[in-house]
Amino acid sequence: MFDSPLSASAYDVLAVTPDATDEDLRKAYRLRLRQTHPDTGGDAALFVQVQRAWELVGTPDARATYDRGHGFGEGATSFAPDAPQWRPPSRAADTRPRARSFGQPGGWRRERYLTLIREWAGRGIELPDPYDPALVRGAPREVRRLLADALAEEATARIVADLGMGYTVWHDVAPDPRDPDVKLDHIVLGPSGLYAVLSEDFGAPVRTRRGELIGDAVVGSPVARLVLAARGLGRSAKVKFSGAIVVLPDDDVTTAIDEIGRVKGLPVAVVGRSALTTVLRRGVSGAREIGGNELFDVRTRLQQTVRFA
Fold first, then answer.
1. C-alpha to C-alpha distances, 122 to 97, 135, 139, nearest whole angstrom
2. Alpha carbon separation from 101 to 22, 164, 165, 205 (Å, rounded)
């Protein structure tokens, strides 16, 4: 929550300006609690957001950290791919073999974002930091959406890389080179099956209904597009996908793993990011597992067919 380029800031949720005094911030928090409390007719989801916002800015130390990371003060952490905030946390060296990976996760959307943010902010001139959080926060939603989805794809890529040597992953795949706007964010092949994976960030809670995502921020039919893209690539490569998976930020789903049934014959699951490893290891209900020589055959066919966005 509040880490997405699309999310309302903690100050927006508390209905104060970023330069509010600590006392004004505390008063606003108490008022917003009363306004959003479910027992007095408020919205339960917003009530939780208010509490989370206070955790982020309710003390001087927490507020200073939040401001640095979100462009409300000097030394803000950039959304750039090599910025410390967006890299995986440091940890002890892991010598286990990682999944084989091809393509650049989020690459197409980052390139498109850079083009549009420069057109919007600088009329094509070079910006000192096109990923500056203060700049991003003021950009049109369609521009911020590109960056949010790029960050979502990169987060998924870090997760699937740790699945191990039994898995092969392709990122930023273009099923139809004639239509660059249609792509598969990830293809994951492993013992549990062959999965088309969509990484999304709508910046707001999402629900499912009749095999599709719904919500105030959802545009179009993401699940249907994912399934159609998977079926198109499957025909080209002469392979059969086991299922499709939509990955969303944990804060934006009500259930960590929501298996929504078959869409055009393909089993589909909508999962929170932290549950993705579990789903890819065990598979989606109704999906066919792949093993033995078939796994090598599918990998070869995909390697010969996949083109990147």
1. 44, 11, 12
2. 47, 11, 10, 30
Distance of CA 224 to the CA centre of its chain: 18
Q: Tokens 């699945």 — which residue?
A: 163
Cα Rg, the chain, nearest whole Å: 21
H/E run at residue 136: helix 133-138
| Strands 243-248 vs 266-272: parallel, antiparallel or unpaired | parallel
Given a contact cutoff of 8 angstroms between Cβ atoms, the answer to whether 147 and 9 are in contact is no
Q: For residue 97, what are its two tokens?
A: 């073999």
CATH code 1.10.287.110 region(s) in the chain: 10-70
Is the CA virtual torsion 294, 300, 302, 305 positive or negative? negative
CA distance 222 to 214: 9
User: Residues 87-124: pLDDT tens digits?
Assistant: 544 455 556 689 999 999 999 999 999 999 999 987 65
Beta-sheet strand order (sheet of 243-248): 100-102, 168-173, 184-190, 193-199, 243-248, 266-272, 257-263
The overall pTM is greater than 0.90: no
Instruction: Report residue 262 as tokens.
Output: 């078959």
- How far apart CA 159 and CA 156 sit, in angstroms, is 5
- Angle at CA of residue 291, ends 290 and 297, nearest 5°: 85
Please give the C-alpha separations between residue 111 and each of 47, 105, 106, 130, 161, in angstroms, as whole numbers. 37, 11, 9, 11, 23
Structure confidence by residue, pLDDT tens digits, 33-58 = 999 999 989 887 788 889 989 999 99
Structure tokens that stand for 225 in this block: 């597009």
- 184 φ, ψ (degrees, to nearest 5): -105, 120
The CATH code of the domain at 10-70 is: 1.10.287.110
Distance CA 199, CA 157 (A): 9
